[in-house]
Design brief:
Chain A: Keywords: Aminotransferase, Mitochondrion, Pyridoxal phosphate, Transferase. The complex is a heterodimer of chains A (401) and B (374). Chain A is an alpha/beta fold. Chain A has helices at 14-24, 49-61, 74-85, 90-94, 104-119, 136-142, 162-169, 194-206, 225-228, 230-237, 269-287, 292-303, 305-336, 343-347, 359-369, 389-400, and strands at 31-32, 97-103, 125-130, 146-151, 153-154, 159-160, 177-181, 210-215, 243-247, 259-265, 352-354, 371-372, 378-380. Chain B is built from 15 helices and eleven strands. Chain B is globular, with a radius of gyration of 21 Å. The two termini of chain B are 31 Å apart.
C-alpha cells in the first residue's frame, strides 16, 4: 500500500481548463481571451527589443554563475526600488527601505506574507479587494494569515464601488493589513482615480492599517511608469510606510525568468538593516538565493540609459495597443448596433477587462463562436488583435442583444 | 562552489555551448513555464537520478517537480509531507537530520511546519568515519513513519558516505520500521565522477520498493549555481498515487513561486536530451571530480610525507567537495589566524579551494597546526 492513498486529487485550475478547451477547438476563428500574457497584433508572444539587446550585452560580458546573495542582485533591487518610488524619493535618499529580489510577483508576495506572519503581531487579517487575483488568497493562507475582504467592484456599473470600499475600509479594525492593487486591478481593470486614491490614503492612515501594495503592471497600465506608480508614491508621501511587491513579468515580458522584488519601507536605515536580516532568514530555507537571469536583464535595462529609454517606448507601445483594442472593441460593438453601454471597456485599464457578461453568455460565446474566457466574464485584452476585434464584437453582440 | 586549479569559478564548456544555442534560437521566448516546470527538464532530470532502466520509470510510477535549486526541491517536498504525510497536517511527525548535516536542512523543515526535528548519529569524530551502529540504532528506535533525510552521496559536511553494504543495512531497517527516505542529491557525478555510482543508493532504495523523494540540485554538477536549477523526484507505488501527489505539489508551488525560472532548465534539458552534449557534459563533470580527487590524494601524500601526527587516509576515503579534516577548533583558529587559511570551526575544508600552487603551503600549515597545538 502507498503512503499517499488518502491524498486527494487537487482541483483542476479553472483558467487552465479554458486553455485546454481552446486547444481542442478546431474553429479557425477561435480566440483565447484567458491568456494572462501580452500578445502582439498577430497574437504572438512579444520579446522586447530592449530585452534582446540586454541579453546580448550580458552574454558578451561572459560572467560566471556564482550564487547571488540571498537578497538578490543589488543593482537590480536598487533599480527596482527607484523605479517604484521615483529616484528623488526621500525614502531612497535616506536609505530607510529594504528591497529584496523575489521570484516575480508571486514570490515577492509570498516573502512579504511570510514576513508579516512572523513579525506583524498586531493582526492575522489581510483585507483583499472583492474580487482580487485568485492566487492572493492561497498565498496569504499558506503563509498562515487570514483573509478578509472590502467591497471594490460594482457589477451593476462595471466600475469602482467607491462608497462601498470607503465604507468597508473605514470599518477595518486598526492595525489590520490591507492589500491594494497599485494599478491595472486584476481581474477587473478598474482603478481608483487620483482623487479617490487620496481619500483612500487618508482613511487607511486614520485606521492605522498596514498597507501592502501589489504592483504587477507599472508602465503596462497607462504606458507611463510614473503615472502607474502614483498611488504608491502618494501613500508614501502621506507618511504611510508601505510594503510593496513588484513584478517584471508583464512590463518587461520576462514572464518565465521570474524577476520581481519585495520592498519594506522602514522608520530609518537602521531598522531597514534589521528587517533585511530577517527577510534573508525567511528566504534561505525557501530556495537559498534567487535566479540571476531575469534580474540581470531587468537591471541592465533599468541601469543603461539607452536601453531604459527604449524600454519606456516599448512598454508604452504595449499599453497603447491594449488601449487601442479597447477602443476598437467598443466602436465595433456600436457598429454592430449594440444598445448596451460598453463604456466600462474603455474606462478599465490594463491587461484585463470585466465585460459584465453573465455565465450563460460566456457559455454561448464558447459554444457558438469559439471565444474563450473565464466564467466571470473576464477577458484578457492582450488576446484581442485588429484582425479579430470585429469578430469578437460581433460575437458579444449576438449573445447580448 | 567549484574552483579551477587557478582558483577561479568555472562555467562548464558544454554550458557555454548550450547557452549560445539558446541565444541563437529565435523560436524561443520568455513565456511562463508550466507550474511543475519544463517537461523535457523534469523527465531528463529524474532519469539521471533513477537511471534509464529504473523500474519506477518503466512502471510509470514516478513524477518530477522542477524547483529552485536543491533547496527549493527540499522545501516543496517538506511542505507536501507536512500537509499529506502520516495523516493530514501532522506537524508532529519526527524528521531526522544527520549529525552533522547541512545547516539549512533544519530550517527548511522547520519553516515547512514540522515541530519535531531530531538528529541521527552519523559522524564518529573519534574514528573519523561513519558511526553506522549509532545510525542504525537511531533508526531502530525512531517512531514508525519518521522521515529521514539521507545524503545520496558526498555527505555535506563530512564527505563520508555509507558503503553499498552499509546502505543495504540502512534500507533493511528503514523498510522494517516504515521510515520515509527523503534523499538530498546535490553532487551526482561531482562526487566520484560517475553519475551511476553516485546514484547507487537512491536506485537501490527504488529497487527495494520504497516510496521516496529525491531532491536534486544541478548547481554543482552543471555549475549552474545562480540559475537555481533543481528537481524533486517522486517515486510512488503506482501512477495514480504519483499523479495525486503531483497535483497537490502543484498547489504548493503555485503559492510559493507560481512557476520556475526558465533559463537553467533549458540548459540542462538541452544538454541531457542530446547524446553528444550529454557525453560532453559527463566529461566536464569528470574534469571537476578528478581535480578534487587529485587534490585529495596530493594533500594526503604530502601530510604522510611530512610525518604529520595522526592518520590521513580519511582525506582520500572521504568524497565530494568537503572534507572533515579532524582538526579541532584551536587548530582551526591557528590555521585562520596564523596561516590565513580559512576553514570552518568544525575542521571542514572545501577541497575546491586547493590548487597545485597552494598544496604545499596548506599541507605544511596543517602539519604545524597539528604539531604545535593540542
Amino acid at each position: 500500500s502507498s503512503w499517499w492513498s488518502h491524498v486527494e486529487m487537487g482541483p483542476p485550475d479553472p483558467i487552465l481548463g479554458v486553455t485546454e478547451a481552446f486547444k481542442r477547438d478546431t474553429n479557425s476563428k477561435k480566440m483565447n481571451l484567458g491568456v494572462g500574457a501580452y500578445r502582439d497584433d498577430n497574437g504572438k508572444p512579444y520579446v522586447l527589443n530592449c530585452v534582446r539587446k540586454a541579453e546580448a550585452m550580458i552574454a558578451s560580458k561572459k560572467m560566471d554563475k556564482e550564487y547571488l546573495p540571498i537578497g538578490g542582485l543589488a543593482d537590480f533591487t536598487r533599480a527596482s526600488a527607484e523605479l517604484a518610488l521615483g529616484e528623488n524619493s526621500e525614502v531612497i535618499k535616506s536609505g530607510r527601505f529594504v528591497t529584496v529580489q523575489g521570484i516575480s510577483g508571486t514570490g515577492s508576495l509570498r516573502i512579504g506574507a511570510n514576513f508579516l506572519q512572523r513579525f506583524f503581531k498586531a493582526s492575522r487579517d489581510v483585507y483583499l479587494p472583492k474580487p482580487s487575483w485568485g492566487n492572493h488568497t492561497p498565498i496569504f493562507r499558506d503563509a498562515g494569515m487570514q483573509l478578509q475582504a472590502y467591497r471594490y467592484y460594482d457589477p451593476k456599473t462595471c466600475s469602482l464601488d467607491f462608497s462601498g470600499a470607503m465604507d468597508d475600509i473605514s470599518k477595518i479594525p486598526e492595525k489590520s493589513i490591507i492589500l491594494l492593487h497599485a494599478c491595472a486591478h486584476n481581474p477587473t481593470g478598474v482603478d481608483p482615480r487620483q482623487e479617490q486614491w487620496k481619500e483612500l490614503a487618508a482613511t487607511v492612515k486614520k485606521r492605522n492599517l498596514l498597507v501592502y501594495f501589489d504592483m504587477a503592471y507599472q508602465g503596462f497600465a497607462s504606458g507611463d511608469i510614473n503615472r502607474d506608480a502614483w498611488a504608491v508614491r502618494h501613500f508614501i508621501e502621506q507618511g504611510i510606510n508601505i510594503v510593496l511587491s513588484q513584478s517584471f513579468a508583464k512590463n518587461m515580458g520576462l514572464y518565465g525568468e521570474r524577476a520581481g522584488a519585495f520592498t519594506v519601507i522602514c522608520k530609518d536605515a537602521e531598522e531597514a538593516k534589521r528587517v533585511e536580516s530577517q527577510l534573508k532568514i525567511l528566504i534561505r530555507p525557501m530556495y537559498s538565493n534567487p535566479p540571476v537571469n531575469g534580474a540581470r536583464i531587468a537591471s541592465m535595462i533599468l541601469n543603461t540609459p539607452d536601453l531604459r529609454k527604449e524600454w519606456l517606448v516599448e512598454v508604452k507601445g504595449m499599453a497603447d495597443r491594449i488601449i487601442s483594442m479597447r477602443n476598437q472593441l467598443v466602436s465595433n460593438l456600436k457598429k454592430e448596433g449594440s444598445s448596451h453601454n460598453w463604456q466600462h471597456i474603455t474606462d478599465q485599464i490594463g491587461m484585463f477587462c470585466f465585460t459584465g457578461l453573465k455565465p450563460e453568455q460566456v457559455e454561448r460565446l464558447m459554444k457558438e463562436f469559439s471565444v474563450y474566457m473565464t466564467k466571470d466574464g473576464r477577458i484578457s485584452v492582450a488576446g484581442v488583435s485588429s484582425g479579430n476585434v470585429g469578430y469578437l464584437a460581433h460575437a458579444i453582440h449576438q449573445v447580448t442583444k | 562552489a567549484y574552483r579551477t586549479d587557478e582558483g577561479q569559478p568555472w562555467v562548464l564548456p558544454v554550458v557555454k555551448k548550450v547557452e549560445q544555442l539558446i541565444a541563437n534560437d529565435n523560436s524561443l521566448n520568455h513565456e511562463y513555464l508550466p507550474i511543475l516546470g519544463l517537461p523535457e527538464f523534469r523527465a531528463n532530470a529524474s532519469r539521471i537520478a533513477l537511471g534509464d532502466d529504473s523500474p519506477a520509470i518503466k512502471e510509470n510510477r514516478m513524477g518530477s517537480v522542477q524547483s529552485l535549486g536543491g533547496t527549493g526541491a527540499l522545501r516543496i517536498g517538506a511542505e507536501f509531507l507536512r500537509r499529506w504525510y502520516n495523516g493530514n497536517n501532522n506537524t508532529a511527525t519526527p524528521v531526522y537530520v544527520s549529525a552533522p548535516s547541512w545547516e539549512n536542512h533544519n530550517s527548511v523543515f522547520m519553516d515547512a511546519g514540522f515541530k519535531d526535528i531530531r538528529t541521527y548519529h552519523y559522524w564518529d569524530a573519534a574514528k573519523r568515519g561513519l558511526d553506522l551502529q549509532g545510525l542504525l540504532n537511531d533508526m531502530e528506535n525512531a517512531p514508525e513513519s519518521s522521515i529521514f533525510i539521507l545524503h545520496a552521496c558526498a555527505h555535506n559536511p563530512t564527505g563520508t558516505d555509507p558503503t553499498p553494504e552499509q546502505w543495504k543495512q540502512i534500507a533493511a531497517v528503514m523498510k522494517r520500521r516504515s521510515l520515509f527516505p527523503f534523499f538530498d542529491s546535490a553532487y551526482q557525478g561531482f562526487a566520484s565522477g560517475s553519475l551511476d555510482k553516485d546514484a547507487w543508493a537512491v536506485r537501490y532504495f527504488v529497487s527495494e520498493g520504497f516510496e521516496l523523494f529525491c531532491a536534486q540540485s544541478f548547481s554543482k554538477n552543471f555549475g549552474l549555481y545562480n540559475e537555481r536549477v533543481g528537481n524533486l523526484t517522486v517515486v510512488g507505488k503506482d501512477a495514480d498515487n504519483v499523479q495525486r501527489v503531483l497535483s497537490q505539489m502543484e498547489k504548493i508551488v503555485r503559492t510559493t513561486w507560481s512557476n520556475p525560472p526558465s533559463q537553467g532548465a533549458r540548459i540542462v534539458a538541452t544538454t541531457l536530451s542530446s547524446p553528444q552534449l550529454f557525453e560532453e557534459w559527463k566529461g566536464n563533470v569528470k574534469t571537476m571530480a578528478d581535480r578534487v580527487l587529485l587534490m585529495r590524494s596530493e594533500l594526503r601524500s604530502r601530510l604522510e610525507a611530512l610525518g604529520t601526527p595522526g592518520t590521513w587516509n580519511h582525506i582520500t576515503e572521504q568524497i565530494g567537495m568537503f572534507s572533515f579534516t579532524g582538526l579541532n577548533p584551536k587548530q582551526v583558529e591557528y590555521m585562520v589566524k596564523e596561516k590565513h587559511i580559512y576553514l570552518m570551526a568544525s575542521g571542514r575544508i572545501n577541497m575546491c579551494g586547493l590548487t597545485t600552487k597552494n598544496l604545499d603551503y596548506v599541507a605544511k600549515s596543517i602539519h604545524e597546526a597539528v604539531t604545535k597545538i593540542q
